[in-house]
Write a structure and sequence with these properties.
This protein is mostly helical. Helix content is 75%, strand content 0%. The chain folds into two domains: 1-57 and 101-120; 59-99, no CATH class. It starts with a helix and ends with a helix. 25% of the residues are buried. The model has no long low-confidence stretch (mean pLDDT 95).
């Protein structure tokens, strides 16, 4: 992997892991990927990491639907859920495909480099 790409992905991975919205499975996959760099396990860990991120990143329509649901209101409270749903609709109107929380933003940045990561 090209050094500049590696540095970029390592930085994004650290941002993902530090995000309060990052789930345990994504943190574990991220840590495993970081630990695998420059080892024979790197290709397998890279594939597992990318698969985990693809499963975890929240599409904007799912964000809106969840925040508009009873479950969203129970989790966030009625006002915060409504504000998050409105924010999601604004994001969608502006062309966003995914939630813009710190974890989803880092996942989107990493996944945007998927082809480059898998070609090595």
């Amino acid at each position: 992997m090209e050094q500049n790409l590696k540095e970029y992905l390592v930085e994004e991975t650290h941002q993902l892991m530090a995000a309060p919205s990052c789930c345990k499975d994504a943190k574990d996959a991220a840590k495993h990927w970081l630990d695998s760099l420059d080892t024979p396990d790197e290709p397998k860990a890279t594939e597992a990491y990318l698969n985990e991120l693809a499963e975890d990143i929240l599409p904007i329509d799912d964000l809106i639907a969840f925040c508009s649901s009873e479950q969203g209101e129970q989790l966030f409270g009625k006002e915060r859920a409504a504000a998050a749903a409105a924010h999601g609709r604004e994001l969608k109107h502006n062309g966003a495909k995914y939630c813009d929380c710190a974890a989803c933003s880092a996942a989107e940045a990493i996944l945007s480099k998927k082809e480059e990561l898998l070609k090595d």
